[in-house]
Amino acid sequence: MELSGELLALLCGFAFLAGFIDAVVGGGGLIQIPALFVLLPGVQPATLLGTNKFASIWGTLSAAIQYLRRVPVERRAILPTTATALLFGYLGAGVAASIPADAFRPLILLLSIGVLAYTLTKKDIGALHAPRLSPRRTFGTALLTGAAIGFYDGIFGPGTGSILVIAFVGLFGFSFLVASASAKLVNVVTNAAALAFFVGAGHVRYDIALPMALFNVAGSLAGSHLAIRKGSVFVRRLFIAVVVLLILRYAWDLTGA
Q1: Which of 74, 54, 71, 89 is nearest to 134 (CA)?
Q2: Where are the coiled-coil regions (predicted)?
Q3: Model confidence at 237, in pLDDT bands (50, 70, 90)?
Q4: From its phi and psi, is residue 212 left (phi > 0), alpha (psi between -120 and 50) or beta?
Q5: How large is the greatest C-alpha to C-alpha distance in the chain, in angstroms?
Q6: Domain count, the chain
Q7: Is-contact 91 151, C-beta < 8 A?
């Protein structure tokens, strides 16, 4: 498929916005993936997904580095979460063919509504970083969190970063800022595993992915810088906006519009 300069510029604009949103609260795929599918209808879906993964992982990595430099993270929670997310993400991908993605849409819609209600009613949640689990319970909870989210990411995927954020806030007692930083670190590793498959299978359009990656990185740097400067209150507000977007997206899908 021939790619015009105007079309590539539009894709890069969406990549910048996706990188910005994803660096703060996750959910950049809600912007970048639909943009690729709508603007490049003649490209194979697997290639679009691989191109998206290549473009977004560099932004996620740059945001993770920014957070690591300036935000203290809880490695005791991140490492076991990452380990089981990798394992169960692989297992989830293996059963994805036998479970239609549409089966998950009602569940994710209900989960998103519950997350929104919980966040709105608990006005102080995530305002302060106050880990409340013992080291032993942190380890066990992290293993289970990584398994559940990794399996979901392997089968379905959209909104995984935002789900990670609320898991770190609600289960571990992290602030929204630390939760977002932690989610970025987990995302880098799990996305790298998925990208290895797409690259190996030849499902990346580098003429599209490389310029989009540059703009995704620029958006991620801007988003992470703003999140660090503004703090957890800003991250919480943007998180609520992204969850509302998730709800509208899945409600739209379920109505068959």
Answers
A1: 74
A2: none
A3: confident
A4: alpha
A5: 56
A6: 1
A7: yes
Report the C-alpha gap between 68 and 151 in whole angstroms: 26
Phi-psi region of 36 (alpha: psi -120 to 50; beta: other; left: phi over 0): alpha
Contact 125, 119 (CB under 8 A): yes
Polymer length of the chain: 257
Are 221 and 63 in contact by the 8 Å Cβ rule? The answer is yes
Question: Do 206 and 58 meet the contact criterion of CB atoms below 8 Å apart?
Answer: no
Residues 197-218: tens digit of each pLDDT: 888 889 899 999 999 999 999 9
Mind listing the pLDDT tens digit for each residue in 185-197?
888 888 888 788 8
Structure pTM?
0.79
Q: Among all chains, which residue has been given the structure tokens 């299978």?
A: 201
- Establish how many alpha carbons lie within 13 A of residue 227's alpha carbon, considering only the half-sphere containing its beta carbon: 34
Distance CA 179, CA 169 (A): 6
Domain extent for 21: 5-255
